[in-house]
Amino acid sequence: MLSRTAENLFWLARYVERAEYIARTIEATLRVTALPAAYVGKSNEWESALLTAGVSQSFFDTYAEANEQNVVEYLAFAPANPSSIRNCIEAARLNSRSVRTALTGEMWDTINGAWLELQGVWSKGTSSRDELARFLRFVQEASLRFDGSAYRTMLRNDAYWFSRMGVNLERADNTARILDVKYHVLLPEEEHVGGPLDFYQWSSILRSVSAQTAYHWVYRETLKPWLIADLLILNDSLPRSLASCYGNLVRNLDQIGVAYGRQGPSQRHARGVRNRLEHSNMNDIFQHGVHEFIQEFIADNARLGEIVTKQYLT
Predict the structure, then answer these.
(1) How does pLDDT run across 45-68, given as a tens digit for each residue?
(2) Residues 6 or more apart in contact with residue 87 via CB below 8 angstroms
(3) Phi and psi based region of residue 289 (left: phi greater than 0; alpha: psi -120 to 50; beta: remaining)
(4) Which is the most buried residue in 19, 128, 229, 291, by most CB within 10 A?
């Protein structure tokens, strides 16, 4: 496969996954800000949404205040934000056009249809929370259709493996960032763990990664920060956990290595991160510091993206 084709497939999957994640972040923030002030507390949930998306600095270069209107506009539609939903879907379509023959009809129809639908929303805007909620649900459903189409219709060859690498690399980064913001930023210092504010914020985090039901199935307890961290970091059975993402990344990279007849630095790096996750437990992570652990993981994950790019995509 040409490196250019592999790169298009890799980034196509990443942009679709990122658009869904931004939509989930906005949706989760809307849920929390809709609560009475006594539950929302003193924290600025819209500022935390920017931190979660990793665009806080660029946002404040343009806007003076992180309120609902400004943040939704920036995260969903702003041309100046490379990670806005609009730009992600547009970039996904551009990448999919470049590798049209490597995609199945269902995958192309999903991306092209999402882009066409986006033009209508972009032209008329979302004037109410109901319209915004429908738009966010549409973005999530488009991502799910694309992911399902890839899983059910693509040949299991290098095109599929590069696509899945993009999904899992992006998903791992998203899960790590939203968990880090919760532990390091969201909860005000004077708010004790287990209070009403803590409960609703943790609920919003679980909803944003589709893990609220999974949490109760696995632990059968009320929401507890250390159990939620365990689910999102170490539990292989949750598709969005860091451990699950890296299990998939190791498998995808190994399959590419076998197909191309050579292992390389990306396989070794992914295996190293996966081994660290396998041999970690929450007691050690809490002793070391959850923020420090996640920051180290985010750096390792970004490093894997650089290694994959150098090894396969250039």
Answers:
(1) 888 889 888 899 999 999 999 999
(2) 79, 81
(3) left
(4) 19
The 10 Å Cβ neighbour count of residue 72 is 21
Nearest Cα residue to 16 out of 125, 163, 208, 116? 163
Do residues 181 and 52 lie in contact, with contact meaning Cβ atoms separated by under 8 Å? yes
What global pTM score does this model have?
A: 0.90
Quote the CA–CA distance of 252 and 271 in Å, as a whole number.
11
Q: What is the DSSP string of 140-155?
A: HHHHHHHHHHHHHHS-
- Tell which residue, 170, 212, 230, has the closest CA to residue 22: 170
Q: Read off the tokens for 284.
A: 């050690």
Question: What is the token pair recorded at 212?
Answer: 């609220």
**The pair of three-digit structure tokens given for residue 203, joined into one six-digit string:** 């609920």
DSSP strands (E only) in the chain: none
**C-alpha distance from residue 120 to each of 19, 82, 86, 114, 123 (Å):** 17, 20, 12, 10, 5
The residues near 144 (Cβ < 8 Å, ≥ 6 apart) are 20
Q: Over its length of 314 residues, how does the chain's per-residue pLDDT go in tens digits? A: 889 999 999 999 999 999 999 999 998 888 878 766 555 555 678 888 898 888 999 999 999 999 999 999 999 999 999 999 999 999 999 999 999 999 999 999 999 999 999 988 766 667 788 888 899 999 999 999 999 999 999 999 999 999 999 999 999 999 999 888 876 655 545 444 445 556 677 777 788 888 889 999 999 988 887 888 899 999 999 999 999 999 999 999 999 999 999 999 999 999 999 999 999 998 888 888 888 899 999 999 999 999 999 999 98
